[in-house]
Amino acid sequence: MNGAAAPSCIEVRDLTLGYGDFVLMRDLNFTVRRGDIFIIMGGSGCGKSTLLRVIMGLKAPVTGTVRYGETDFWRCTEDERQRLLRSIGVLFQGGALWTSMTLAENVALPLSRYTTLNEGEIYEQACLKLALVGLAGFEAYYPSEISGGMRKRAGLARALALDPHIVFFDEPSAGLDPVSARNLDALILQLRQSLDMTFVVVTHELASIFAIGNNSIFLNNTTRSSDGGGDPKELLRNTNSAYIKNFLTRGAAGQEDGHA
User: What is the pLDDT of residues 19-44, one digit of tens each?
Assistant: First the structure.
């Protein structure tokens, strides 16, 4: 499904990230293809979430380009930028649900704001998206009444509300027990298969990286650049980077080589 012939969704070229005079990452180059589950990985503080924010339009890069198809996101008109933003969905680390709203009301929020559907049609779509993530029957529940794993699924349902082509995740498994994390990974794979969606995921969880990722970029906070990318399994087998090997084996590679 995701061979070399798959068309690109996002192309990042010569990207530098920073805050003021501080350079966080420089010279990043990668392509997210249609149907990818693209993993942004690296150690703590390397700039994973900042890179995600730049790609999804929440923070401008210092230099470089982010292209959605033929459109240069940071150099297009505001109307073009808003059009692109309506074609993406986002699941933030905590789910970011409104605690005073039911799950159905949370999912309905973007539909109310960005579509011309009437109230009945909006509720129907909200129920459909909740069912899609396994939450049929929980429409009237509040976030405080369900588990952490279910809140993540509800956040995903809201991210899917406008039928996006691309969904961005920031640490989707954070705070989840291993079973809930595996179930969320399985749901992501299912949605990619059934809806032909593309996912960009920030995560440091090895189980998720190997279970769902088919493409990636590794950020090295020592060199402030990328050490490589591609399918995580192939990357581990073929890389010459000690940083990647240690990250993807949690230090076991370094211990075996006598470097830990």
Answer: 988 999 999 999 999 999 999 999 88
Domain count for the chain, please give it: 2
In a domain, 56, yes or no: yes
- How many whole angstroms separate alpha carbon 3 and alpha carbon 16? 28
Say whether both 117 and 53 belong to one domain.
Answer: no
pTM strictly above 0.70: yes
Q: What confidence category does residue 173 fall into, taking pLDDT thresholds of 50, 70 and 90? A: confident
Tokens representing 232 are 């995580």
Q: What's the domain range around 228? A: 8-87+165-256
Beta-strand ranges (E) seen in the chain are 8-19, 22-33, 37-42, 63-68, 71-72, 88-91, 166-170, 198-202, 215-220, 225-229
Residue 1 lies in a domain: no
